[in-house]
Amino acid sequence: MRRVLIFIGLFAMIFSEAEELAQTFCYFTPPSDWEIAAPETLAPSVKIAFIKKSSKGLCSSLNLAIEEVDVSMSEYLKVVQNIHEHNRNNQWRKLGKIQTSAGSAQLTEIDTTTEFGPLRMLQLILIKDRHAYILTAAALKEEFPAFYKDFQKAFRSLTLTHDLLSTIPQHERREKLKQSQLRLLATWRERLAQLPDPQLPLANAAFQKEVWNSFQTDILEHFSDMGAFWQVLFLRTSLQGLVAETDAIAIEQIAHRTEKTPS
After folding, report:
1. Please, which residues bridge with residue 139 across strands?
2. 235 to each of 15, 135, 140, how far by Cα in Å?
């Protein structure tokens, strides 16, 4: 079930955005037993969410939102405060700073009411390179103490990187996975050369069954220590590389056909 949820999250993230391969990745490490929330339930700015089911009726959650900004932290916090305090049932307050893997970030707290009871949210805000990264932890107030350590651990794990492979701490594992990713791409190139027309990698049943599924299983089973969010991102970027190869072949074929067409 866990693998299915990760896979669903992966595809929703791939096809909901047009992203270039050279990009900044932001991720955090959620608790290992939390599930990926259904992508269709998320706001446009929320990249991913993890939930923990509760007998109280409201899931505890962790989600990451990313926004483009052109303001300072103090200005951004004023906007956030005004948004939350517009609802008189909300109580907002600025807490201290937390040192994350991505740098120093501001922590805020919001208390509000729901049909299930009082709700507490902690929002960790990091502004870097004209982007605001907002990691929100939420739980019913009565359940909040049970998740506090999980939330703090997730906050401190917030990471920004241009290279997901570089975040694997062990050199041998990094190199092994790098070679596995290169073999995946080389195999797809070979398959593309045998096809009459370019095809998306997961539209090719044989490639998915014989190659991709094995690669995915390796990531899920042998890199669980990197966290489910990292796994989703790595699988996504690997698949983007295959799609880019398909696009390149398609463009070549169109150019070739155009050259052959008499003027």
Report:
1. 120
2. 13, 22, 33
Specify the DSSP element, H or E, that contains 74: helix 73-85
Distance CA 12, CA 123 (A): 24
Task: Give dist(CA 112, CA 91) in Å, integer.
Answer: 6
pTM: 0.85
- Angle (CA) 162-163-168 rounded to 5° is 135
Q: Is 162 helix (H, G, I), strand (E, B) or coil?
A: coil
Instruction: Say which DSSP state 209 is in.
Output: I
Residue 72, Cβ density class (10 Å: 0-12 exposed, 13-18 middle, ≥19 buried): exposed
- 142 is written with which tokens? 């009565």
The pLDDT averaged over each successive group of 10 residues in the chain (263 residues) is 48 46 83 92 92 89 95 95 91 96 97 94 96 97 95 97 96 96 94 83 90 96 95 94 83 59 58
CA-CA distance, 263 to 247, in Å (whole number)?
A: 26
Question: Distance (Å, rounded) from C-alpha 110 to C-alpha 121?
Answer: 5
Write down the residue that tokens 């507490």 correspond to.
120
Residue positions counted in the chain: 263
Supply φ then ψ for residue 56, to 5 degrees: -80, -10
The Cα 172–Cα 39 span in angstroms is 34
Domains in the chain, start-ordered, CATH in brackets? 26-161 (3.40.1000.10), 165-260 (no CATH)
